[in-house]
């Protein structure tokens, strides 16, 4: 019967044994998908992206879902659906199955070889975001098999790490099939291993390349130095005029004008979140930081915009010194944005100011994402709190997160339904870092949390 809620005590008795029983199956499936290098930003991995999408469809069908690979102008999106009863409410679960590039001397294990060690799972994509995606899938199977009156849809993207350039195309072209009452996203971080978090805000992003060409070839610094322009030096000077590297303050005129002020209630939530500055410094390997004041740290990483330099390319980079003046240099930069800033306006402010400071520098746009701000109150937020408290025994904190998820903004605009982010990843899991990992404690707890969340939201009118 549609909408009839089974007894929670009966479900709770079954969920523990279910989680224990499926551990080997979970680990096997995670290993299979991790060992496919679904790197989205490198076109040479296109065949692996397609293989990963095909395997994702197999996973969904194996669990009883209708599933298909949906084409876009870029990488595919895998869509799955299980209808318990058309009259029941529906939740759409979003994850991404593409990953960051991996490799280099800091990896102590092969990045695309799945490794199990003492309840930990190593490999690129284990925590971002293949482990949480499979965790939600296992919870969904349990929910429908045990009579929780909810319809479940899965949206698995393969371009999130590349800025989700075609996710809007997917939503618009499959909107009728995507009809849902709410969205659940599991692609975010906890405060620490003993403090869960429910983010309700994400920063946006505007990337750019600053390019300066002053010649056509390397020239001798002895015969031309003092006369020739040095593009590396000029870009360094330009960057120092765009932001203060010591404080992080952005100097671009008008940059902070549209920033939405952090409310007192939000700051209070931030400060009571359990964030530990010293521990977080240890996790990230910082030797020094701009500030250790807790309130200031939390404002800076969750609620304020930034300007960052990611790399400067130009000149000679081999051993020793080659005494030349290079003809060209490029700086790769980005600006993290917060509500109510927009990438379009931020880029225009940057371009206009660069033109004033050094008109010979070309400003070339790269990835852009708008910031996101949702709700931290209401029935869905309450359901998320109950779910996490049930599974992990700890009340979660409501925070904003400093990263960006382009698909969340797209879903907010086009689906127009509540979005809740219940992440399972820990700071030490190594998002985008060498030796990325996930663990069974988070996976097993996550299955229980998602089942309880499905139970709670199935009764929201």
TrEMBL record:
Keywords, sorted A to Z: Hydrolase, Metal-binding, Protease
Single GO molecular function: peptidase activity
Segments forming domain Peptidase M20 dimerisation: 200-360
ATP-binding keyword on record: no
GO process terms (BP): proteolysis
Pfam families: M20_dimer (PF07687), Peptidase_M20 (PF01546)
InterPro entries with a match to the protein in the record: Cyt/Met_Dipeptidase, Peptidase_M20, Peptidase_M20_dimer
Keyword Ribosomal protein on entry: no
Protein name stated in the entry: Acetylornithine deacetylase/Succinyl-diaminopimelate desuccinylase
